Every structure is written in C-alpha cells, then in structure tokens.
Amino acid sequence: MLDAKIPSGPLDDKWTEYKGHCKLVNPANKRKLEVIIVGTGLAGASAAAALGELGYKVKAFCFQDSPRRAHSIAAQGGINAAKNYQNDGDSVFRLFYDTIKGGDYRAREANVHRLAEVSTNIIDQCVAQGVPFAREYGGLLSNRSFGGTQVQRTFYAAGQTGQQLLIGAYQALERQIALGNVQMFARHEMLEIVKIDGKARGIIARNLVNGELERHFGHAVLLCTGGYGNVYYLSTNAMGSNTTATWKAHRKGAAFANPCFTQIHPTCIPVSGDHQSKLTLMSESLRNDGRIWVPKKKDDQRKAIDIPEEERDYYLERRYPAFGNLVPRDVASRAAKERCDEGYGVGTSKQAVYLDFADAIVRYGKIEAGKEGNSSKSMEEIIVLGKEVVKEKYGNLFDMYKKITGENPYEFPMRIYPAVHYTMGGLWVNYELQTTIPGLYALGEANFSDHGANRLGASALMQGLADGYFVIPYTLGNTLADEIYNKAIETSHPAFEEAEKEVADRINTLMNIKGTQTVESFHKRLGKIIWDKCGMARNKEGLLQAIQEIQALKKEFWSDVRIPGSINEMNPELDKANRVADFIELGELMCVDALNRNESCGGHFREEFQTEDGEALRDDANFMYVAAWESKSAHEWNLIKEPLVYDVVKPSQRSYK
Amino acid sequence: MTWKQVFTSSVGKKLVMAFTGIFLILFLIVHAGLNACIWANDGGEMFNKGAHFMGANVVPRILEIGLFVGLILHIVQGLMLELDNRKKRSVGYAVAYSDGSKWYSRSMGILGTLILLFLVLHLSDFWFPNRAHQNFVLGEEIDLYAKMKETFSVLWVVIVYVLGCLSLGYHLAHGFQSAFRTVGVHNRKYNLMLVSLGLGFSIVVTLAFAMMPLSFYFGWIN
Amino acid sequence: MEHYNMNLTVKVWRQKNSREKGGFQSYPVKDISSEMSFLEMIDVLNEQLIRDGEDPIAFDHDCREGICGMCSMYINGKPHGAWKANTTCQLHMRAFKDGETITVEPWRAGAFPVIKDLMVDRSAFDRIIQAGGYISVNTGNAVDGNSLPINKDKADASFAAAMCIGCGACVAACKNSSAMLFLSAKVSHLALLPQGEPERKSRVINMVAQMDKEGFGACTNTGACEATCPKEISISNIARLNQEYLVASLTSDK
C-alpha cells in the first residue's frame, strides 16, 4: 500500500493545518543542507529560486544552454487562478471542483484543493516579479475563459503566458545565482540517481559540452523534468524534452503512476509529411472565438469558404450545447478523431477539421462599428475592423500558422488536428511531492498528482509554479528538518562510484553497437507504434501487439543503433540515444498500464468501454485508483494501487452537454 | 557610480559621442550661416565682417577653444570606439548582413575619418593661415573672402571639398538622429521627427557647404 | 499552398570544438519538400551524414516553435534567415528555390564562442541578467495582484520588450557585436513597471557594466538588431536604456 500522507481534517483546512504543523529548519541549518534540482522549467526554476531565497544550498541542472529555454516557455494560453476578479462566481472550491471533474475523477482531492488554494498567490507573486500580464484600460488584470470551465479565471500575456511566467521564474533564479545561493549547471543531463541507505543522495550528470560524467551530492533531489510526451516522437513538446530523469528514478525504485494518462490537445497544426519533426500547438484560447466544423457531406472536395453554412457540421456545438467549442481537451480531441475516422475530415490528408474565425471576425467588426456609432458600414468594412480585433487577440498565433502552413488564417479557416501535448501520468508522489524513494521529489508535469486522467487548459502553468513556489518550500523542510545532523556525503562514496560506472558502461555499450540505423529512425518507429496503439483510442488487442513490438524494437535498438562521434565531446546523437533508450522502456509501461485500466476515463479511451453515444465510460467500482508501477525487472512491473477517496466531490458521469 | 565609471562604460562613451556630436551640429549651423554671407554678392563685405567678428573677438575665440576640445574628443573617442567595436567579432561572416541597416550607419568610422582628412586640408587652407597671420592672438586677419576665391579656383580642391561635404552629409544622416537616441529620446513621435529633421539637416548643410566652392569656381558670385 | 521538391547545396561552418579552427563544407541535399522547416532540412542532411559515416552537424534547437530562443543559425547573410520577425526553426523551405546554395554560419561574436559547428555559448546573456535583470522580491512577499493598477499602454510596452527570447540574433546582426537590444529589452521591461522602480537605477548601471565585461561592443544605433529580431523588439528600447543610464549616472551619490 502506498501512503499518500494526506493530512487529516476537513479538505479546506488540510493545507493550512499542514503548514501550521510541519517541521521547520532554522536559517543556520538551511545553509548546510544541499538540494539538487533537475530541470529548470516553471517547477524547477521556481523551486530553485524559492529554496535559494530560504537559504538552502541549491544546485540546478538543465540540458539546454540556459534555464530560460525550458519548454514551459512554449505554453501559450494562460494560467488559472481562483481570484474571482470578474465577479462571475469563481472560488477556490470551483477551481478545485472543475479540476477534479476535468480530470475525470482520477486525481487526488487534497492535492487539487491545495493547488486551487495557492493559485491566487501565484498571480500575486508573478505580478510582483514584473510579469506583464494583460490588463484592462483601468489598469487591472484581464481574464479570459478556457475549456472545461464556465468562469473567466485565466490570466494571460497575449499568446506567450508560459514565456512570461518562465522568464519571471528564470529571473528569480538568476538572482539567486548572483547571490550565490544557487549554482547553475546548464548543458548538463542527469543520467542516474544515487541512492545511499535507501535515500536519494545525489545524481550523476553528464556535461554535454565535453561529455564528462560528474557526481553531485544533495540531501534531497528534486526532479522537475516535465513530461514524456516525446515518447510519441511527434508531439508539441520541445525536441529535447525527455523522460530520462524520471525513468532512471523509476528504475532505481520510484513508482511510476498512471503512465497511460496522456493528453492529446485538440488544436494543433496537422502533420504535413514524413519529414515532420514536431507538431505545433494552436492555443486553446482560440476556441474562445473559433468555431470547429467539418462538412456535412463525406469527402467534400469544395474549399471551406465555398461550403454554405447549412452544409457545415459544427459538431462540438451540436454534441455539447452547454460548453460548445470549449469542452475539455480530451472530449474535443476525440470528437475530431471521430469525425475524421467517419470520413468527414478535410485537407489533403483528411486528418484535419476546420477552426473558423469568420463569425468572430464579423461579430467583433460589428462591435467596433457600433463603437464608432456608424451603422452604415458595409460588410467589407466590418470584416476589416473585425480582423483588426482578432489580430490583436491572436496575432502571434495566426502568424505562426501562416509561417508553418503558408496559408492565411484571416481568409481561410485553420486546419487543425489533435496532437500529443501533455502527460498527466508521472512519478508517483505523496502529498509532500515525495516519490517512493525517500529524499527524491517530483514537481510539475514530472509527477502525476493533480490532473487525474485529463488536464484542463491553463492548469499546467498553475501546477508547476504552485509546486515550486508554494508547496515544496514547506514540504521539503518537513523532511530536511531530520537531515540537519547529516553532513554532506563525499562523492567518493562507493554508491557514487557505482552509479557513475553504471552510466559509463551504458554509454560505452551504446557507442560500441556501431549498427546501421539512426537514433531518429528508432524514435520514429517507437512513436508510430505508440500513437497507433496507445494514442487517442486504445484496445486490448492493439496494446498487446504494441508491447510485443516495443520489446522487439528495444532489442533491435540495442543491437543495431548507430551513434557517430565519440563520448568525450559534444555529441547530440549520443544525448538523443540515451533519451530514446528510455522512451522505449517507458513506452512499454504505458501500454501495460493502458491494458490494465479496463475503463475509459479522460485522455485514456479504451474502445471497449464507451457509452452508446461514444462518450468515455468510467468504471469507478473497479478503477477508482492510481495505478503506481514498481519496476521489477526489464519487462516486469508490480502494480500498487492507491485508492482514490472522494470526501467532498461526488463522482458522476462527466457531462458537458 | 564615479565619473570614471560613467565615461569608460560603453554607454558613457556613446554619450560623449552624442553630446560632442550635438555640439558640433550646432557649430555647423553657425558656420554655414556665417559662410552663407558670401551669397550677399557684395564682394565679400558682409562675409568678412562676420568672419572678423568670429576671429577678432575674445568671446568667439574662447568658444573656439571649446569647439576644438569638442572636436578632438569626438574624433579620439570615435576612433577608439571604432577600433574597439571592430575587435568584438574575432571571426567575420562569409556573407555580410547588409539589409538591416544603412551603409552609412555602418560606416561612421570611415566617413568620420574622411571628414578628418578633409578638415586637415580645410584648416590648413583657411584657419591656420589666418590665425598665423594673427600670431594666434587677436591680431589683424587676412581677407578670407579673397582667400576663398583664390582657393576655390583650383578644380581638384573644389572636388575634394565637395567630397568632404558629401562625407559630412552622410555622417550627419546617421549621426543627427543617432545622437538624440543616445541621449535618450525614445518616444516614437520625437524619433520620427528627428529622423526627418536629421535627413533634412544633412541635405541642407551638405548643399550649403558644397555650393560655396562651386559658387566660386563657376563664378556664380562676384 | 503549392508544394514542390528541391535539390540544394548546404554550405555550412564545421568546427570540432572551441579550440580548433573551423571551415566551410558543402553538402548536397536532395528532394527537400517546400513544406519542411529549415531545421527539418538539416535533420535530413544529418541523417544522411550519419549513414555516410560522417559527423552530423551540431546545432542548437529545442522548442521548434519560435519561442525558446535556442536556435541560432546565420543563414545566407542574416540571423535566422530571410523571413522577417522569424526564428530559424520557423523558417520553412518555401523560402528557397531549387538549386540554391545556402550558406549557414554560427553567430559570430567574441562574447559567443563557438562550442561546435553552429552551436555557440550564450551564457554571457545569463550573466547579464544576473547583474540585475530581475525584481528583488522573495516568494511570499507579494501583495494582491490588483492592488497596483498599471496603465495599459505601459503594461503593453513592457510586454513588448519582455517578449525577447534571448536568442542573440541582435548580437549576431550588429556590426559591433553589441548586446544592447537584448539588454535594453530587459531594462525597458522592468523600468516600465512600477514594480521595477526601486531597483531602476542600480539595474541599468550594473547590467551595462556586465555587458561591457562580457566583451560585447558598444551600440551605434545602426538598427540591424531591430531588423533581424524575431520578436521585433524596437530599438526605442535602446534609447530608453540610454536615458535610464544617463539619469542613473548623473543622479548617483558617488
């Protein structure tokens, strides 16, 4: 049994109670305690900054050339907070409830409530750091709405909210570096966890510039390394995003929870060919104004603008009148897949649907014309005015679409299709964000805790910063308070030596395969297996096949991969090989998990388990648990269940109709 | 922050360039205005009066020292900055980036050097003989109008002068607005104004100065 | 949009590491689709090189959606290639014609030493931020986000400066290898907000000092940085920095 260490007492009071009673470390002792943070995205950078401010000795690692490049930077739409600045009925409870419901009742109540509670502090903190959020003319903060909610609680900075928040956290981190509280190791990749007496005590990192292996000690190790969406090869993740840190932790004993819960984002630019290296997201905020449709006629060859209104099927508005185009991501993605599978898809590949702004342009144009008090404007003039408004709201996204596709989305509807975007699964953590290895923590997307089976838009930024700024400073102290008697361990300790040797051996093995196939080609093949069989829809037969195929692929990889260059130099192919090797292993576990979960919930859709009208059919009686997997051997795992107890929310069939 | 820190920083050095530049622009207005008296067509009477006021009066002569200080600062600092900036890119590009900026904006050092060479000629033509005649105090001056007439009767001198004026024009086309940016004018409306004003100023000043040798050479004035 | 395939020659800078001398090498690439991104074309070339037993070209890239600022190629005489307001990763092969030779160089600046091939070390930018590119507010100290209204125009101008992705194209484009656009974007971002007020003077002084120390050149307002900036950061920010610097230096005590 896993003990999530959830504080007792009423839900509203748990976090307050915890903070009031957790152990503290006095400032003089903090200086003696060393903390390793791997990854410097929102969770990592904010944790490094916050812990540095408290006085801990922090070492932060990232594989990019600067902490400012972490992929949190690409988040476009916004960050949720229960501020209720709009007076539209929002509250901490409502944000909590929406998140639990959005997650299809597979998230832990206590964690989510804490997230909703601290959400408001995040906005305050970021404003104080100088994050230039969008504002109204009165000078106050502006909000917009996102999928799965009926209030406006999303704070944003045009289409670059992630960038602005990350820059805020990065600056806070750089300040701590300047003050000497944090030591930064850029272009370093963590390749192993070092365990001493059962506790995480350090890492082995590879300096990616010269290829040297380095040993680093920490009283605690925090993994803030993001998700594993790149297991699919094509995803909206950055090219470098990887599972290596979390996977090494898993192989060293940390349980991996709900790996099959992956989020497929409904609005991405469709794949254009085999050369494609990554997919690009079009922010969910576009669904505020864009209407999604396909032709009513199968295989309609006409251009979008030639299809009259009555021959268009606005299928989200039709199926889900209450939420319309703003249904949660899993629902929107599946609906798009359903239409395309039925033969209504558009574009050359037929694997796309339209996201149309024509109505929004006219609507905004009329408002603008109305402001001018001029009712005699022609439709052309109204459209010109409307385009201006749309440009101000979404200009950067429209530009990006145009650059990638060569089409002008102001004139023609965008073509979009779902793509892998986020992974709800991750290392299992308790209420304190500690994994099953004592001293090893996982923050942000790297853990599994807050989003259940589906994440709502604008919640990932919230979780990353909540974990880093407001949760870990308390929960880490609670553990480290017992560590003040333990001096830093020399890195000449045999455990370090052994861990380094493991890493060196593995790298040597990889380099000595000298096969014929490139790393990239293996990654592509892995991605295809998982996308086809463990993607938007899964079934038993396909998953069993996938497991076979992945095991075969693993064998092939370890016998025929070709890595050019040498070990002791900058060698991006070697870096990639290290990552792909781990993705292959993780891919297998994803399928194992998906096979085990005989129900459909959130992003996990098992074709065998659906309602008559094609909605996900949950099985609360048998699967209301977190599936945490412990590594037994290369292809064997132990399933440990953490039952989910809902004291406050009553799980029901999720309805957005 | 000490004065030394201010004036040895990259922005401080630029401030020196900008302030001396603006000062020299002001001087150009005076210089061009005064020299325009040659077109009074009075045989140089008005021009020589003006020149006499500048050369034989203690106040302009004190200001003249300031002018030389400003000029020398501008030249020395400019050359040092140019050399310094050139060292910042150890390996150059195979294909140069030329679309993003005007050629004369990138060539301020060369244009400035050309102007300096021209100045040597110009000063040795007029200023030095005159001051020498004055024994470098407030003594009697030479007939500068006559001197101009004589100097600008030689074709190559006229050509060099016109080229010098052109260098000055391009130097100003960038320098005028750049100086104001450097001292911190960042509002768009002023910047737009300064760009047009700067271009207008460079054209007018270049034309005014270039017309002087041409006017003499082609005998447009008597 | 019509697509077409093309054959190209890529003339690219190869350099083993920061100590060794580099040089250009030309490689032919075939059947490149106009729909590919520039980096996907390099991917294709690299796969080809690996198969031929050669060392693939090392280059920095990560998000491939124009926001992380990691990609950094100087393509045919312009940082990030010919398209306006664009990063290398968003440059698509539509921008090229069949048979073309494309010259690719790393960012060139003394302050950005080459690590390998097209990769350069931009850690100088981090150190400039460390010198003062932040607001000193510890976590938990903040007042309510709406307690301080900020004029929308100023907030928007601040955001426009804060959009800088720190790619270094401004340095690569500048004839003086100056980092003034990068620096001024940060100074403007923070100086335009009331939160940035307390450290306004020390920030600009310290950041300029750090930039000089890192070996970047001085700004001569040529405008090349603005013309190449993928986020179209305005050089008005540099003028604002100059003003901030002038005021800060004239009004300091010592």
Q: What labels describe this entry?
A:
heterotrimer, A: 657 residues, alpha+beta, Flavocytochrome C3, Chain A, domain 1, Methane Monooxygenase Hydroxylase, Chain G, domain 1, 5-stranded parallel sheet, 5-stranded antiparallel sheet, 17 helices, globular, C: 254 residues, Ubiquitin-like (UB roll), Fumarate Reductase Iron-sulfur Protein, Chain B, domain 2, 2 domains, 8 helices, 34% helix
Shape estimate of chain A: globular
CATH topology of the domain at 264-420 in chain A: Flavocytochrome C3, Chain A, domain 1
Strand order of the largest sheet of chain A: 6-2-1-10-18
- Helicity of chain A, in percent? 25-40%
Largest interface: A-C, 84 and 80 residues
> CATH-wise, what's the superfamily of the domain at 264-420 in chain A?
Succinate dehydrogenase/fumarate reductase flavoprotein, catalytic domain
Rg value of chain A: 24 Å
Summarize the structure.
By secondary structure, chain A is an alpha+beta fold. Chain A contains 17 helices and 22 strands.
Report what the structure shows:
- The complex is a heterotrimer of chains A (657), B (222) and C (254).
- Chain A is of the alpha+beta class and 657 residues long.
- Among the domains of chain A are: 264-420, Alpha-Beta Complex (Flavocytochrome C3, Chain A, domain 1); 494-623, Methane Monooxygenase Hydroxylase, Chain G, domain 1, CATH 1.20.58.100.
- Helix content of chain A is 38%, strand content 16%.
- Chain A has 17 helices and 22 strands.
- In chain A, the strands form six sheets. In chain A, strands 6-2-1-10-18 form a five-stranded parallel sheet, sandwiched between helices.
- In chain A, helix 3 (42-54) runs parallel beside helix 12 (460-480) and helix 4 crosses helix 5 (109-129).
- Chain A is globular and about 80 Å long.
- Chain A starts with 13 loop residues before the first helix and ends in a 14-residue tail after the last strand.
- The relative contact order of chain A is 0.16.
- The mean pLDDT of chain A is 95.
- Chain B is mainly alpha-helical.
- Chain B has one domain.
- Chain C has two domains: 5-116, Ubiquitin-like (UB roll) (Roll); 123-251, Orthogonal Bundle (Fumarate Reductase Iron-sulfur Protein, Chain B, domain 2), CATH 1.10.1060.10.
- In chain C, 34% of the residues lie in helices and 15% in strands.
- Chain C is elongated.
- The N and C termini of chain C lie far apart (63 Å).
- Classes of the chains: A alpha+beta (657), B mainly alpha (222), C alpha+beta (254).
- The interface between A and C is large, with 84 and 80 residues.
